[in-house]
Structure formats: C-alpha cells, structure tokens
Specification:
The protein has 185 residues and is of the alpha/beta class. Helix content is 36%, strand content 21%. It has a six-stranded mixed beta sheet with strand order 2-3-1-4-5-6, sandwiched between helices.
C-alpha cells in the first residue's frame, strides 16, 4: 500500500499524540479512529490506552503513534500534540514536550490562562450552541487534527460518514464544526 502524503509530505518520522481527559469522554474511540485513518493511508500505527479504576469520571488517555516505518516502542515519549478535554489532563501535560508540541484544550470552564504551546477552544459551549452536546469529543478531535494533522482530516471525515445512524451523522457534523473552529484561528 502506498503511503499517502499528509500535509504536503510523506510521514516518515514518528508522530505521537495524546488524547487525555476523563473516562466516558470517548478518548479510546478517538484514538482508534485516528489509528484507522492512519492505516487507511498506508501508515504504521499503534494505539494504547490507560484509565483509572473508575471507567467514568476518572483520568483516561489514549496515545496514538503514527509513522511511515515500523514502530519499535508503542508508548508516547515526546508527544507532538496533546488534546486535553479536562483541566486535570491539561495540568498533567502543560509542561511536557518542547517548542514543537501543541496542547489543545477545552477552555469553556478553564480558570487558567493559555500558556506557551497551548491553544484553547470553547468545545463544550460551542457543542451546546450547535446542539451537538453528545459529540463534543468529535468537535475537539476535528480542531486538534486541523492543527496537528497526524492523519488527513478527509480520511477521518470519510470514516465517520460510513456510520449510517443518527450518532454517526452527529459525530460527522461535530467533527466538521471542529475543523471549522480551528481554521478560523
């Protein structure tokens, strides 16, 4: 399978992303979705997940590694991008990485100011405004992948369009709204 170009170039180097927040926010699903999009583009991918003893409400994360060559180690060592859906997750990753990493977070209820290498979006309030409350995570993923295109957003949109039910259509609409939100910045 030929490796498709991402953001104008073949992805040869390892790209690591972390999707972090609270159990029940669909972070594992988001990680699997990114992995599926990578595989459809001929890329190597691995997804790991971690969550606390509480399946809902406790800390949860999904790490996804994408590369054009074999992946020797399956854990994120130097995340290129982090999506934090809770203040707790944001706090855990706020000082991680270097000047290349970007931390995208939900700033709807955040009480801290945006730091260097961070970008906040009102995902919760925007999802409510659009009637997409159940798919806030998908909106966040759309914005995140627009800013950190580890996989083509078109491939993710294609995968979402294959779900022929109400939730699938809502997810696709929320993803597109997130892409739009990020492009306005």
């Amino acid at each position: 399978m030929k490796v498709r170009a991402i953001d104008g170039a073949r992805l040869e180097e390892r790209r690591e992303i972390v999707l972090a927040g609270s159990g029940g926010q669909g972070l594992v699903f988001l990680g699997r979705l990114v992995g599926e999009a990578a595989a459809r583009n001929g890329l190597r991918t691995v997804q790991t997940q971690s969550y606390g003893v509480a399946s809902r409400g406790g800390f949860s994360k999904s790490e996804v590694i994408v590369a054009g060559k074999p992946i020797a180690y399956p854990m994120a060592m130097k995340p290129w991008g982090i999506l934090a859906l809770t203040d707790q997750a944001r706090g855990m990753y706020a000082d991680s990485g270097d000047g290349e990493r970007l931390l995208v977070y939900d700033d709807t209820y955040s009480k801290t100011v945006q730091g260097q290498g961070e970008m906040g979006f009102p995902f919760i309030s925007e999802a409510r405004r659009l009637g997409l409350d159940t798919s806030m995570n998908m909106m966040a993923l759309g914005a995140f992948l627009t800013l950190r295109p580890v996989v083509p957003i078109e491939t993710v949109a294609e995968i979402l369009s294959e779900a022929d039910d109400e939730l699938g259509r809502t997810n696709a609409k929320a993803f597109a709204a997130g892409v739009s939100l990020a492009r306005k910045r």
